[in-house]
Amino acid sequence: MYGRLGQNLAAGSRSIKAHGLRSSRAGVAGPARRGHELAVSRAPAMDSCQNRVVVSSGLRPRAIRAVVAGTVQGVGFRDAIRRRAEGLDVLGWVRNAGDGSVAVHAEGPPAAIEALIDFLHRGPAGAAVEEVSVDDVPIEGHEQFAVRGVSAGVFVVQQHAASTRHFDLRLELGGAMRSWAVPKGPSLDPSAKRLAIQVADHAIDHNAFEGPTEHGGVVVWDRGHYEQGGRVAWPAALERGHAVFVLHGEKLGGGFVLQRTRPGPPSQWLLLKRRDDEARPGSDIVAEQPASVLSGRTLDELLREGR
Ligand code: MN
Fold first, then answer.
1. Do 161 and 268 have their domain in common?
2. In terms of domains, do 136 and 194 share one?
């Protein structure tokens, strides 16, 4: 990736600004030192936007948040950006925003970020870009370039009376339902840390099961689809013990985290609600909304009726 940058070195016009940059980063090791040469070589660009060149110079990674406005949704923009980012070794995410724009977080080598910004101004065929705003932001350490806001599959929360009562949270992944037994159930209160014990994967067709069992019963307490989030791609995020996801259920919504606290088996995790618009501090949703989303029955009613 550094070969591209070398081409710029031929341009070489020095400036006071570039020398100032050199001294301000004197303590930076290795690759960033090469970047000083780049800063000098790109000096002509500073006539148009000094700040941008200072930030983008050097091989130290650059991170941006960009908003692309215009006719940019429904034209394959997100996939086009993802492919371009992957070709440039740029990491981060892209999502469609509620106002019709496309939002991008991108981090990587400065020249690659510049190339991605150039692409944002054009977009794929069918897009009509009207405006691109770019802000430099701190590096977040992404390990993938993800399309955000798209379903990764279904989720279900079943309330289960067996030897103990608990809730089973299941997320579709790789053709099965990854499952955690959550004794107290999920919460929309970000301060509630709910113990979640990973249990065996279940078949997807078990998601709709509701009814009595030999020693108790099951109701479908919530269901919907979910998005994968975080800086690390799934399933690696789960394997490493920190998985961020967004639920779109009938009762549960917004961001959650599963954080492993003890290796298994069975591994122990905490299920946490992230602080977002769908957080409900102080609430207890399993008490407030006990009924099945399939039948309207509570687990108690099902156990009494025995069917
Ligand atoms: Mn269970």
1. yes
2. no
